[in-house]
Amino acid sequence: MKRHRFKQDRAIGERLIEEARLAREKAGQLPAGAAEREELLKKAREADIAAHIDEWLTSPGLQPPKLGV
Question: Could you report the per-residue pLDDT of 5-22, keeping only the tens digit for each?
Answer without folding.
Answer: 888 888 899 999 999 999
